[in-house]
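Final paragraph of the annual report: two paired records, presented back to back.
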Amino acid sequence: MSDDIFSKLFELFDQPGPVNWKLGTELARRLAGPPQPVDPWAADELKELARLAERRVGEIAPFPVPPAPDAAPMDPRAWVEANIEPYGPLVEPFAASVAGEGEAAPFLAQMGPAIIGLQAGSLVGSLSAWVAASFEAGLPQARPEVMSLIVSNIEAVEAAGADVRSVRLWAVANEVSFRAVSQLPWIGDRLAALVADYAEASQIDPGKLSGLVLGGADPTDIERSIEGAGGIEGFLVGEEAEAPKAELEAFLGAITGCARLLARRAVGDIAPDFDLIASARDAARPELSDPPAMGVGPVPAEITQLGDRFNQEVERRYGETALAALWAGPSLMPSALELGDPTTWAARALLDGWS
């Protein structure tokens, strides 16, 4: 039995690349739980509403809204399978944070991909337990393909007085809008630069990490061992990551805020409970999601709310074409300070010659 445990452990850790996706996927699957049946009636309506939302968002968005190849209602386990690797660019840069020299170097070279894989698995697995779709995480994915919607999580949304159809329309409209903003051609490069800055500032102390002892072949046991040692945050050094993290969150808040603004405008007349549902989800967010100790986590509700207000204020002050100009490129994206202070943003933007 002991030989079998060590062979499984070796197999889990002996994976190529900067991220141990095998370990991360195994953990994410365990967190998502076994496959669940999907209500076919709910699935059919979600697919129908997704096409309606694409048409309506496309009519009011200040940029193109590329339709998804398909809308795929699914269970949490299937969502994990479909979404873990598309989040790769958000976790891979942090592999360089786990490095060392001398005698500890071989251990750290092996542990780096495993730790980042565990962070990826923990992120995606925990998200699968509560997000309606990717928009609630607020993290743009590389190469988004089908529109994956978690039926059980949508059906579990609680908002006093809101009917089921309004909740479903709220979910798909937000996902359509979020995908549209996320697929603007310059978003990926800007996001990659901000994640790289954050990752570079997030460093693990090799001396602390080299003393970690892991036991068992179960990814959840490995994660438990890390938590028992004080969690990943116990291995981090310095506070240099706070500023780049704030800038990354501001960028993501501008994206999620714009997506919420577009979704509200697109379907608000046929989903009058839109803001009621959004408020209920924002209020529940702190209980549903915990930020990872290391890496990129879900966008906090208050950041999305700031982004929503920021986008509204830009449009209110500078007219109907303001959002189109704002989203034409990265130079006018608000900083962490400006996201909560549109006046400061406007002073910079106007001085740069935008009108």
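The closing record of the year follows.
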Amino acid sequence: MTAGAKSLAVFYHPTMQADGADVPTHTTHQGYRWLLGACWGVLLGSALQLQQAALSGMAVYVLAVLAGPAVCGVWRRVRRPVPMGPGVVVLGTALVAWGLCGLRATVFAAGVLPPALEGRDVLVTGVVSRMPQRHPAGLRLRLVVESAELEGRAVQLPGLVDVGWYGGQLANAEGASEDGARPAAVPDTLRAGERWRMRLRLKAPHGLRNPGGFDYELWLWEQGVQALGTVRTGRYDPVPQRLGQTWQFPVEQLRQRVRDAVWQRLGTGQGGQMAAPESAAGVVAALLVGDQQAIERADWDVFRATGVAHLMSISGLHITMFSWLAVVLVGWAWRRSQRLCQWMPAPVAAGLGGLALAALYAVFSGWGVPAQRTVLMLAVVLLLRLGGRRWPWPLVWLLAGAAVVAVDPWALWQAGFWLSFVAVGVLYAGGPGTAPQLPGLQPGQRALGLWREQWLVTCALTPLVLVLFGQVSLVGLLANLLAIPWVTMVVTPLVMLGMAVPPAWDLAAWALHGLMLVLQWLAAWPFATVSVPSAPWWAAAAGVVGGVLLVLRLPWPVRLLGLPLVLPVLLWQVPRPPVGEFELLAADIGQGSAVLVRTASHALLYDAGPQYSVESDAGHRVLVPLLRTLGERLDTVVLSHRDLDHTGGARAVLDMQAQAALSSSLEPGHALVQQRPGTRCEAGQRWQWDGVDFEVLHPQAADYGAAGAKKSNALSCVLRIGSAHGTHALLAGDIETAQESRLVSTGAPLRADWLLVPHHGSKTSSSDAFLAGVQPGVALVQAGYRNRFGHPAPGVVQRYATHGIRLVDTVHCGAAVWRSDQPAAVDCERERAPRYWQHTPP
């Protein structure tokens, strides 16, 4: 990111000389103010439109687009003697930007998957538009729909569908069929550009909603995907049929061939000989064709811990660095020909050539949204320079950002946009030291300049990184100083050279292997990373301003004023329950269970959610980021029983929370017990934290040796929590009717105000006698959207309604927060800040 921001801020800088001085402006002061107002108007109008919970309708947006120019026209007519100020331009441009963004969203939203087709098996014919992503459970592909049939009649589907074809290890439950047939084997060769006919079970894009979590629905919205599908390969489903290869998507076809060649040479995926460290094959593929899924999760953990993750995928860094190198090479070659220089000046040819080659590189890397933004920003500043526009850098910076937002308004909600945007601004404002590292400079000057640039960006972005991710690498400055030149000047050129000379990939792999050894050593340092709770917006804004103020060319007494502004980000603590009270946060983790219990100074995690695949689980994707966002240190992890939808994320959580004790019903030989020896939960266990009582109600000690212990649900740890004022919550795991009946008959203290619905609302649980014994005011179901089990079962939902119990589910609520001092209220994450692109389940 630093090198990429530098190349954009310097080489294409229209006003900065090599010594950092500004070139005199040729624009009028009034024109400068108007253009500055237009830039702010685009940013403001787009940001306001993205705040909408629901779209306003096409007519409203059309009126806004027409009203923008009208505002400026009326002002000029009515206030003719008075020049139009930038405020009027901001208002007019903001109206236009708001309306255009809303129009685009309205048109796109009109093509969503019809709710009547959700859960239906539709015969779809389409072309694979992107190279498939293979994983242990099967593969994922993106299909451009050509036609669709439901029960013999044509139906209309969205243009793009993300498809999962499961059949491997840990196959997703939704890939199974109701008739019990095993999924058909996933084809070994499935290529971009192929036309297929397959039966898909469709559903709308529905992501997980947790505090500080990734907005999967927005990501799909930006990608243009409006439906998800699962290939049906049951006994009565037609076999997926390959209809032939098409000429469509030639770039994707080339990318896939190159990726396969990388794996054949460096990995074992194609049965080739391993000529270099196999672990580097994924990084080489990511750097060459943008296949980030090829990088192993353990490697991503190291990259994040050392702050170099931005280097290991094609992003703004690689596009801008490639553009900078292309400009140098094209300019050098162009100057060799006098005739070419007479036809077009070398600087102009170099700039256009660099931009063209950068665009080609971005297309070959997959033309992802970050790459599109970078190419657009490069094009804007280059065209300004070629047009002879000598504008101050703040205007160029804002103009480039406004151009990106005008094309992609939803970039404002993406962390990558803000990191790149702020980094470019910092390097613009940093003054001397941001000049390009020209060949004439001495090595010491180059090293000093690189150190200063990295230091500037690190200081300015640290508060922003903490706000966005809750974690920052303390070894990132050193790691980037080593990794940026090594990756950009050694690894990346070797990776690209390998397309012509394959042995170069071996050299790139060994170069990456050496770098990984250094990064792993740095990641193992004590306090290599620091995590802080997610601060509110006002503290986040103050922290970013403070970080930028520290690096501006100002007197040091003024710079030091930025330190107090950064402190709220560093010292912020999420409010905790008062003594004697507790809080429950039921995470949105799909089909599984995970509830965080917080008291005044302690925390307990009840279950750790499901394992989604070999490389992905609820701990890694949801719970670890959630705990980091809240700044939480767990005292105890309770795993109710061994089922994978309750223990799938436990390993990631226990790795993060080394101090946490483990309590479970797991057998002694279970892998998690081997990792973290703990205690066995048994009825009668009690403890108290901060005036809050905890009591285990089930299982009995004798249950572990009984024949029924072979059924894991029967051993679910049932935990009852009580406040000092008599408010209770009951976490029931996956107990079924037999265990519920025994708890009722033995007179266990079941009464509770909040209930975690047993077994996700299965028809084998939540008996009338049990509900009568608990008498909760609120019951919560943790289940996945359109899960294949049908949880919660309709009969169970009716049973809760009959007993007058309010039933809340994470599908509609997202992460749900309940507090013992407000037992009637439930705070839903999906209701905190709803946005129109977020899916609303029926």
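The two ends are 42 Å apart (CA to CA). This concludes the annual technical report; the extension proposal builds directly on these records.
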